[in-house]
Design goal:
By secondary structure, this protein is mainly alpha-helical. The protein is built from 10 helices and 2 strands; from the N terminus they run ααααααααααββ.
Length: 297
């Protein structure tokens, strides 16, 4: 945090000045109450003017220091501005009262004693400046934490997407080469089945290629790929594979990873939903198998 951030909150230079004058009026409120009670309005006016000028002087000194090397040391700069501002206004106040108005506010007291009256304003403004400094510092820290959390979330999202794309890249070439090799083998022995398998491969690629750059798809889209994939496998192994796909309409458009390969499915579930998602495989008595995907709501 630099000095400019303290002097121009939210990029508005006058905002701090308004706050400083308001704080000054709070500081002299006790004097104003006494002045009104005893109807000494001149004293009340002098106290108000002294407080307001103190605010202006401190802010002015801080802006001067903002152009110096101290701008990168805001705590030191604010402390110096408070000290110089309070002493400057106290000396000006004493000069005006004693030499311009001809009033002796502290009869019989030395000049050093009269100047020591600065300790009240100095303490008041030191407390106010410290509170302002730590308030803005905490706001800046909170903003940095928020930015760091957003950056971490974006990193996690991009990491998960990269992992999903990497997993897809592991599956697609292996499946494609195996299927093409089988199509070549079928064309030599059974041209009709070879053409059917090639048609199913085209169907699969037609659905898969647009999704290659996506990290997620809907359940309906994934099951369309599964349909094409299972058609291909059915042509390979014949009557040993029988399947049906039934999808309730209310979940067809949900974001849902299925994919190919058990390890791939589990990895995609973990990347998208965390530890709360899992793939469960159980025997289906008297024959077959049941694969269930569970995801957190």
């Amino acid at each position: 945090m630099d000095l400019k951030a303290l002097l121009q909150p939210d990029g508005r230079p006058l905002k701090l000045l308004v706050y400083a004058v308001a704080y000054a009026m709070v500081g002299c409120s006790g004097f104003l109450v006494v002045a009104v009670k005893f109807q000494d309005y001149i004293w009340g006016l002098e106290a108000s003017a002294f407080s307001a000028i103190s605010a202006l002087a401190i802010v002015a000194f801080a802006h001067v220091l903002e152009r110096s090397r101290l701008r990168s040391h805001p705590a030191v700069a604010i402390a110096i501005a408070v000290i110089f501002g309070c002493f400057a206004v106290t000396l000006l106040d004493l000069y005006l009262i004693e030499h311009v108005l001809g009033i002796e506010p502290y009869p019989g007291k030395t000049w050093l004693y009269r100047v020591s009256m600065v300790r009240g304003p100095l303490l008041w403004w030191a407390l106010g400046a410290a509170a302002w400094y730590f308030l803005k510092r905490s706001e800046l820290h909170a903003a940095e934490v928020s930015r760091a959390e957003i950056a971490a979330e974006q990193l996690r999202a991009s990491t998960a997407e990269a992992r999903l794309q990497a997993l897809q890249a592991q599956v697609e070439p292996h499946f494609l080469f195996n299927t093409l090799a089988h199509v070549k083998w079928l064309y030599r022995r059974d041209a009709d089945n070879g053409r059917r398998m090639l048609d199913r491969l085209v169907d699969y690629l037609h659905g898969a290629l647009p999704q290659m750059r996506q990290s997620t798809t809907t359940l309906e889209q994934e099951l369309q790929l599964a349909q094409a994939y299972l058609d291909i496998q059915q042509l390979r192994i014949g009557g040993r594979l029988a399947f049906s796909i039934e999808v309730p309409r209310e979940i067809a458009q949900l974001r849902f990873p299925t994919g190919l390969g058990l390890a791939n499915v589990r990895a995609r579930l973990a990347a998208l939903f965390g530890a709360g998602a899992r793939l469960v495989i159980e025997p289906n008595m008297p024959h077959g198998v049941v694969a269930a995907i569970e995801i957190p709501r």
